[in-house]
Amino acid sequence: MARIFIALAGVLGALAVGLGAFGAHGLRAKLEALDDGAKRLGWWETAAHYHLVHALAVGLVAFVIARAPSSLGNGAGYAFTAGVLLFSGSLYAMTLGAPRWFGAITPLGGLAFIAGWVLLAVSGYRALG
Questions:
Q1: Cys-Cys crosslink for 112: which of 3, 82, 102, 103, Cβ 3.0 to 4.6 Å?
Q2: Where in the chain are the domains?
């Protein structure tokens, strides 16, 4: 699983950088023309920030489980990935015009991020214990 998570971290990181750059350079002018463009741009920036941070977290999971494979470590990697898809994905989608009810998905991604950090803490503690 460590190999899968390190590869996934690379893909998620590359996507985060690309989407962040798209938001800053390709999307900004289009959004600024809309009445709620500033709010939408904020959503995009938040999505890209959390996306990149949690791509790095998936990479950290890979290093922890390479040292001490565990189901908790694997769970952390899955939780971080789910968080990126749900949290960042829903914000990206709403920025691009998806219905506002997508906002109800965002907190589920936040819960997945929290679960990932707790699972990483426990598995890392056990790996170093």
A1: 82
A2: 2-128
